[in-house]
Amino acid sequence: MAVGLLTEGINEVIATTDHNAAPMGIINRNGSLHMVLFRGSHTARNIARDRWVVANFVFDPVIYVRTAFDDLPEDAFVSEEINGMVVCRLRDVEAWAAFAADVERSGGETIVVRLTPLKEEVLGLRLHPVNRGFASIVEATVHATRYVRNRDPWLGRLIKHHSGLARKCGGSREWEALELFERYIADLTRE
């Protein structure tokens, strides 16, 4: 069941909070929308404090990698006013959706946030054929954000697998994202 722009399952987006961007999964199960966030992340702190999040629909693998490991410059963001509340979205998106965000459960390492749609806007959609290289960049990035926390060898193997698929199936933008990804991972694993 679709809820606005979100389809059933886990929708990978670039989530923005107060001038912060990070790849996140928004879970849509039977029309109920949630996010599971690592406690202590900028995104989790901002959502708990401000009680909103914006899902940015972006199909650039470099942005997924950059926002997973680094901050974007201030000029990458645009403010939007919704019912007297100012939220922050990415400037270069095809579509965006803003949500009220309420912490529903809080565990040892994660918090579960319930989302309520506030507004969405389609700015200019393009057709995006399924690209295994792009999907593999997203998967490798998800695994890497966990790998840097616990150095689990299984996650390391998954990263290697998805990096190989991105190299084989991607185009120039995926290869650029992969090169950036490998630099971030090398720097983070040296720490």
TrEMBL record:
InterPro entries: DUF447_C, DUF447_N, Split_barrel_FMN-bd. Residues 11-122, 131-181 form the DUF447 domain. This is DUF447 family protein. It comes from the Archaea. It comes from Methanoculleus methanifontis.
